[in-house]
Amino acid sequence: MFNLAKIAVRNIRRYRRRSLLTITLIAFGVVFVLVFVAVSSSFKDLMIRQITDSYLGDLQIHRRGYVASIETLPLNLNLAPQQASNAVKVLQENPEIASFSERIKFGAMFSNFTETTNIRINGVVPENEFATCPQMSARISAGDKSVEALRKGKILVPVLLARGMGTKVGDTVVIVATNKDGSVNGKTLVVSGILESATGPGGRDGYIHIEDAMEILRLPQREISEFAISVKTRARVEVVAQALAAQLAAAAKDPRKAPFQVHTWAELSPFANIARMVDLMTVFVKAMLIAIVLISILNVMIMAVYERIREIGTIAAIGTLPGKIRSLFLVEGLFLGVAGALAGLMASLAIIFGLYLWKFTFNFGQNVGLILEPTLNPAEIAIASGMVIGVSIIASLQPAVKASRMEPIEALRHV
Amino acid sequence: MSLVSARDLVKTYRSEAIEVRALQGVSFAIEPRSFVAFVGPSGSGKTTLLNLIGCLDRATDGLIEVAGVDVSQLERQKAAAFRGEHIGFIFQNFNLIPVLTAFENVEYPLVMVQDWPVAQRHERVLKILKSVGMLEQKNQLPEQLSGGQKQRVAIARALVTRPKLVLADEPTANLDHETAYMIIRLMKTMRDDFGTTFIFSTHDTRIIGEAELIYTLDDGRLVQQEERRVAHV
What ranges do the domains of chain A cover? Predict the structure, then answer.
């Protein structure tokens, strides 16, 4: 193997300019893929983190049919107290759950005594909500940024409403809602903070303490509209969702009629479509890399075989077996690919590190000043390098096979 | 027992409507340790005959045995293995591998064809390079060597595996008279030292006289066989 490698390296150096051009081309492709993957996946992760850590959580549990009617926030599709208690038990027993927040959601009227508008209210347990959505604090642009902002008698008002109605921290407002029985009830609350909007729906979402919500809706026991759940390992969201669905179904009296539905963030947020588009673009960029490597290696190896026909004839004549001749050219193509991948990797790491230090900021929807800090997953490095190396071998195969099948006598006659 | 024997050897080349009979019923026998020349004008069939002996080509008809093996119809892979084990080649254009040094060129068959251990093959290569007088130039690339030096390296490469037979097609065609003579003498010395049979083709009248057995070919037929004793100079 060492001798195959030695001959391959010498032949690569022999056609220095052509080899350099090929290596540069491959390196350029690798840089393009890795930088694109680093930037796009960092953007995607950042946005997903914004969404899940701001209000959505990684997973949510609802009563069956609730999500389909979520725009109307139907109170009659809340999880009954016993069902909610079953869900809490399952969530507490699952070691992959970092935290969860139970919410009572309902539509209400928001009044500052001079104007009235509609609002979506989330009644939450402050500590659980802040633990499950750690960006909550960062979203509070004015007022108390701690869990104290959601103590009983307080309300976090969405910035859209606060601006539109001139509401400030410390103002008293009234929340009026119709309960399940059709009667109307209201409660005065003090504005403890103004809540910036997160990406996606939620522009009209206000937050109050869960007991205030129960009081407004005159709920004698705690019914739950949704559980927002944060998982310990985000990559395992799908697995945890499946496990939870199974556990919740098992907890139900009749598993076939289990009242629970588990949704991942991707099933609930429209950003999932953008994330899928980003993934699709990554696939296209990787396909481009494959094309670059395939064409450049194939071209250079076809040239190499053509220019060395007499040499092939000589080594075949002195007894080199066809398999060894094939290996000689495969190793040469492989080394070109490896050199290109290494050069591309070095350049990519330098560029990505530069971008990381630059702290590039961008705006997305309501979110302004988001900082893009591209990082490269080792798995992506392995995938890109593996692709280049694999395609290099595939591209070298045809010329290598052609070389190994040459009749020595004809190759020796070649001028 | 003959090292090489041919019986009624025929080789015909066909291209579209044209048929060329390069060899027309050639028969001969060559004993081990011989120093044999095939001579004749261009197109007489010398190279074709050497290619058949060297298992580089297949006969259209007839039989050819090398070291007791019928090589007239050997399959590609087996032919390559046979060449690697039993036959050394010396080419008119030297055909050294340009990216390898003189040492590495000679080492090549031991590494890529016969897979020798490092220490043994280094010893063997140094020994043979010394024999052909190329030890000092062992680290030079072919492009840094003269024609005569290249052919010495080629001889060393052909002999390094200690083959039974070395085939040389016009080995002195690209060399000046003095160098050509030196090369043919070197080949002969190697025959004496290693007991290898040398068969070469030539139409160079200056070196024909060095052969101990001369076969003359004309128009694909063996027209003369001359055995001679050559006095060492």
Answer: 2-51+272-413, 65-258
pTM above 0.95, yes or no: no
- Into which CATH architecture does domain B4-227 fall? 3-Layer(aba) Sandwich (3.40)
Q: Given an 8 Å threshold on Cβ–Cβ distance, is A14 in contact with B98?
A: yes
Residues of chain A found within 8 Å of residue B91, distances taken between Cβ atoms: 314, 412
A405 vs A399: CA distance, rounded Å: 10
Vertex A272 angle, CA A120 and A274, to 5°:
115
- Residue B21 backbone phi and psi in degrees, to 5: -95, 100
B89 touches chain A (CB under 8 A): yes
pLDDT tens digits for range A168-182: 899 999 999 988 888
pLDDT digits (tens, 9 = 90+) for A113-148: 888 999 999 999 999 999 999 888 888 888 888 888
Nearest to A169 by CA among A155, A187, A150: A155
Chain centroid to CA B36: 10
Domain regions of chain B by residue span: 4-227
User: A218 at the B interface (CB within 8 A)?
Assistant: no
CB-CB neighbours of A17 under 10 Å = 7
Count chain A–chain B contacts defined by CB atoms under 8 A: 68
